[in-house]
Amino acid sequence: MVVPPPHKVGCWVVPLGLLVGVAVGVALTTWASAESLYVASAVRTAPALPLQATPLRRLEDPNPLYRLRSGPPPAKPQAKHPGVGPKGPRQTAEDVGSSHHWGFAALLGMSMSALWLALRHPQAAMAEAERELSAVYTPTAPQKLALFAATGAKVIKPKIRGFICTTAHPTGAAAKVQKEIQYVKANPPAAAGPKKVLIIGASTGYGLSTRIATTFGYGASTIGCFFERPSERNKPASAGWYNSVAFEKAAHAAGLYATSINGDAFSDEIKAQTVERIKQDLGQVDLVVYSLASPVRVDPVDNVMYRSVLKPIGQSFENRTLLTDKDQVSTVKLEPASEQEIQDTVKVMGGEDWERWINALSAGGVLAEGAKTVAYSYIGPEMTWPVYWSGTIGQAKKDVEGTASRITAAGACTAYTAVAKAVVTQASSAIPVVPLYITLLFKVMKEKGTHEGCIEQMVRMLGTRLYPAEGGVVTDDEGRIRVDDWEMAADVQEAVAAKWNTIETETLDQDSDYAGYQADFLELFGFGLEGVDYEQPVEVDLPMPSFAPQGESRRAALLGMLAPAAALLGPGAPADAESYVKSLGLRGQTNVDVAGYQRTASGLQILEARLGEGEKVVQVGDRVELELTGRLAGKNGLYFFNTNQTGEPVEYTVGDPNMIAGFTEGLLGMKEKGIRRLVVPEGLGYPDPLEFPGPIPDPVDYAFREEVKSVVNTNSRDCTLVFDVKVVKIRRR
């Protein structure tokens, strides 16, 4: 047998290895189930994709692989005399090149074979990958760290600040969703119900439980709207994001339609997008659930941000409360709201947006004949009325009831408000007095066997009130659907009142169900669920199943497996990730067109990372001071503008005729300290032909200007621009 010399072998080993590896990978991904592919894409798509589709909280490079590749590769060591080293024979340059070829081909083949493991057992994938890689390559400590960071796996613990938790656990969220699904299956409805449902505010609390109950109780197809944060830079996503991922996976596994839209539900853009989705996928809906809870709202008509307040009306209010961050029974005193604060609270939490949704759905022709719509509300006992039902929030809830009457009178559908019982939600945790009331209420109702959580409430509301086995919708004399009846029972309220004035910090655990309150609070964020090992690292970057087409998920799965291997190979690897992107048929900007962005009529896409502060919003003619980064989608996310490097903000006059149209449009409506990502398509960006100086933003470096011109003037690449903008100062002229 004739063995070819090493440098000859190198000519065909790499092509053959690539061909076999890619063929095996494609075969495996075709065979694997769709659910596994979504998991595989989460193993790490982000490092290989130049434009990460998640919001940036700080204006800096989101991709660690860019930093790993900075600078030219180190030169290969050269021997003074070919074939001889200081301690004996050494490899020639040809031998070194050949060993790199063999190493790269072997590593690529093993990466492809490891894809099967990642698809079926993502938690074990990286341990197996590292074991196999070590047979041909021993990474340095920083390279090991980069590989681990690229996978996105980490141990997540609850971090609580006041009445919120800043972390969420994806496995715990999935366990909570599954627990609610099992309850629905164990308590099937007695009559037929909705079949095509839109839930506005579908990611947490009563909205999520309604989605679960309609899907797994009635077999309904659902569209859920919410505004949640995906994972970014290996940080956990929001609890609502993980809840929705778990729900969609469960619904799809059961063969049920479920899709989601992530964006500001108050905006006209999200309403229009939802109408189009219904037209395309469902035709019409027969139930619309409105379950939004937000402290702020930007009115799409006047573009003003309104803020709600939790205050009494007319006079100050003092009562007992529970400081959950200190485990302490205390006293709270609240000053009365101003007339402007009352109006603003009604603007945010009243019925105006619900009515705008129904009008948009009606105008789009997507409300089925006989359709119903429900908005959730709360009344509570008299002890909470000064801060709730008789306060600013109560004014908003009364406006919701008035809105129900107007919607019904308009004739497009029949509207109801559904009054639910007090439960632990992110919203209720923030209301003074209410947490102490809930801890006392839980103890009494659990002792009486009448306690319910969100899912129990929604199953009962749908099955016995909105779609009862006999008769029509069950309401009280005011036309409200009531599922707070067990809470408001006289014996329950008497027992709560008996403890209200005597409970103290020292008797908190004895006289109330504070432990149950805390457990429910942690469950909101995926913690404290039975059967979940919270000491094990978990993947934090979970894609929303309905956001990615199946074919794209397959390519993303391949790309995600190749990226860590490329990071470890170092100098022996291809020069940049763009070659991987091209070889797999992905373009650098494919992951920016996601539901988390609001698409304007012009085609501009906006991601609202931070709303900002103050009353002023950017208008045409304003002089603005900005922190700004600009990148070229067609050059693998190459920066051409970055104030983080110069250390100085830039100033522009909004509406300057030299400013590119997409940049001007994207700045409008921003507030000071607000942050947006703008995805500017061709036609709203730089003109063709392009010459600098002229168009704004003007790259500050000659080399960057030439890069931009090479993209725009040659039309050889995608001309999409991505800007991350922070408004530092607004100066009104």
From TrEMBL:
Coiled-coil residues: none
Enzyme Commission identifier(s): 5.2.1.8
Entry keyword annotation includes Isomerase: yes
GO MF entries: enoyl-[acyl-carrier-protein] reductase (NADH) activity; NAD binding; peptidyl-prolyl cis-trans isomerase activity; trans-2-enoyl-CoA reductase (NADH) activity
Reactions catalysed: [protein]-peptidylproline (omega=180) = [protein]-peptidylproline (omega=0)
HAMAP family membership: FabV_reductase
Protein name per Swiss-Prot or TrEMBL: peptidylprolyl isomerase
Species in which this protein is naturally found: Eutreptiella gymnastica
